From TrEMBL:
Cofactor: record remark: Binds 1 FAD per subunit.
GO biological process: 2-oxoglutarate metabolic process
Sequence positions that bind NAD(+): 188-195, 278
Signal peptide: none
Keywords: FAD, Flavoprotein, NAD, Nucleotide-binding
Family: Belongs to the class-I pyridine nucleotide-disulfide oxidoreductase family.
GO molecular-function terms, A-Z: dihydrolipoyl dehydrogenase (NADH) activity; flavin adenine dinucleotide binding
Disulfide bridge partners, by residue number: 45-50
Pfam families per UniProt: Pyr_redox_2, Pyr_redox_dim
SUPFAM superfamilies: FAD/NAD(P)-binding domain, FAD/NAD-linked reductases, dimerisation (C-terminal) domain
Cofactor annotation: FAD
Protein name listed in UniProt: Dihydrolipoamide dehydrogenase
Binding-site residues for FAD, renumbered to this chain: 54, 115, 151-153, 320
């Protein structure tokens, strides 16, 4: 079996958007970088998550928005084949040639295969099913300075009897399906479950969503309630507070989910079942055990991305592989921070932001304190259901659980001048959570059409710790829905 050994300054395990960003930022200052990928360069978000799911969701949202406008005539029905074809265009037909070309053009080396850490600064790569590794089936990469784990996350199956053998869909199968099943059971009420229930109902499937609690449980309660109400409005059977007890795949290909709710046993049979019950960091097959590290819930890192348990200050973690990071954009931000840190510590040139970067174990400089603020306090998320849900920072409950003395105020989006212009069907809610001791926002949630486009102002307010008295002087334009900022502050008492 052929094998070869090569040295690079930095080795990044994972060529998703997070791995690509950390590699790019490190390589900009002259470091040689190898990026190891066992599947498609571009990762989960490009081919099976963010991009294809939004391609499936956008047509239904556009049709519903058009139907709500006064004076608009008949709106055409959705063309399912065209939607699936556009989804295929968005994913480049699951061909990563353009991503691989970008890596090469940026001066980095893409190594196809599965990478495992076998010793400090040493990654062993075995060839994947996609391609042999430069003619060799095995390759050893030795990093002079840093190894970065950017392996993302994987879905988990709940321990329901019969579920594993029923060959359920996961998010990958749901976003890449060639055909729309006549009926679909969605198990799970988080982001993936809520979005895919919406998309497949739009595409014509009869959909049942079954979840143990409410929808979008990590967000403000009103958000999940609004999404559940809309799903029911478009014909989804939403079953809350249900515990799945058994799954059976029948000889004819259909599948039955049995569940208990309020002491009653019920069942639903459909053509397909989608399990959307969460994801866990993909840290179990990276070779961390060779370093004596166990990280089932994600790597523990400092503000500069250094893995706390690794001796010698050479191992970094980013993205979903790190405890607490769960979105692509947050992972990419963290990747930019870590890439700049590695470049500053080991590169030939000063990075664009100008440093300085603390040495390993030293007290973080102000910019890494900002990074910690963004990671811990001000993470953002948009759920592309109808209505959209957009949030930053803490919910009221999370803030109180953290010991803060807070006050939450809400205002209806339809009661703004901009909302009134949108028509009678326009509705939504904006909520801010104010730390009463510091008089700054620590969280905000927007629920309504295109709510995601309203989020960044709140993100700036939370990250910047802008006093609410100062926010009052940020005058919103009239007549826009963003006038809700004025109304929120007036409701608060300014």
């Amino acid at each position: 079996m052929e094998s070869q050994t090569d040295e690079f300054d930095v080795v990044v395990i994972g060529a998703g958007p997070v791995g690509e960003n950390v590699a790019d930022r490190a390589a900009r200052t002259g470091l040689s970088v190898a990026v190891v990928e066992s599947e498609l360069a571009g990762g989960e978000c490009s081919y099976w998550a963010c991009m294809p799911s939004k391609a499936l969701l956008r047509p239904g949202a556009a049709v519903e928005a058009a139907e709500s406008v006064v004076g608009v005539g008949d709106v055409p029905a959705l063309d399912v084949r065209a939607i699936l074809a556009h989804r295929d265009e968005v994913t480049h037909g699951w061909d990563d040639e353009s991503q691989a070309d970008w890596i090469a053009d940026a001066g980095m080396t893409l190594v196809r295969g599965h990478g495992r850490i076998v010793a400090p600064r040493t990654v062993h790569v075995t060839s994947s099913a996609l391609a042999e590794v430069d003619g060799a089936r095995e390759r050893t990469l030795v990093a002079r300075h840093a190894v970065v784990v950017a392996t993302g996350s994987v879905p988990v199956l709940p321990p329901v009897p019969g579920l594993e053998t029923a060959s359920p869909w996961g998010s990958r199968e749901a976003t890449s399906a060639d055909e729309v099943p006549g009926s679909l059971v969605v198990l799970g009420g988080g982001v993936v479950g809520s979005e895919m229930a919406t998309a497949y109902r739009d595409l014509g499937a009869d959909v049942t969503l079954v979840t143990r609690s409410g929808l979008l449980g990590a967000m403000e309660p009103a958000a999940g309630e609004a999404v559940a109400a809309h799903l029911r409005e478009i014909g989804v059977d939403v079953v809350l507070g249900a515990e799945a007890t058994e799954v059976v795949r029948h000889d004819d290909g259909s599948v039955t989910l049995t569940y208990q709710s309020d002491g009653t046993t019920s069942s639903v049979t459909a053509d397909q079942i989608l399990v959307a019950s969460g994801r866990v960091p993909r840290t179990g097959d990276v070779g961390l055990e060779s370093l004596g590290i166990e990280a089932p819930r994600g790597l523990d890192v400092d503000p500069t991305g250094l893995v706390q348990e690794a001796e010698g200050h050479w191992l970094y973690g980013v993205g979903d592989a790190v405890a607490g990071i769960t979105t692509t954009h947050q992972g990419k931000y963290q990747a930019r921070v870590v890439g700049d840190v590695i470049a500053a510590r080991h590169g030939d040139e000063e990075p664009a932001w100008g440093g300085p970067v603390p040495g390993p174990g030293a007290e973080p400089e102000p910019w890494t304190r900002y990074a910690s603020t963004s990671d811990v306090v001000a993470q953002t998320q948009v759920v592309f259901t109808r209505p959209q849900v957009a949030s930053v920072g803490l919910t009221e409950k999370q803030a109180r659980d953290a010991g803060m003395r807070v006050r939450a105020v809400s205002f209806a989006l339809e009661d703004t001048a901009g909302g009134y212009l949108m028509g009678a069907d326009f509705a939504g809610t904006a909520t801010i959570v104010v730390d009463e001791d510091r008089r700054v926002l620590v969280g905000a949630t927007f629920v309504g059409p295109e709510a995601g486009e309203m989020l960044h102002a709140a993100t700036v307010a939370v990250v910047g710790a802008v006093p609410v008295e100062r926010l009052w002087h940020a005058v919103p334009a009239y007549p826009t829905v963003s006038e809700v900022w004025l109304r929120l502050l007036e409701t608060y008492g300014l």
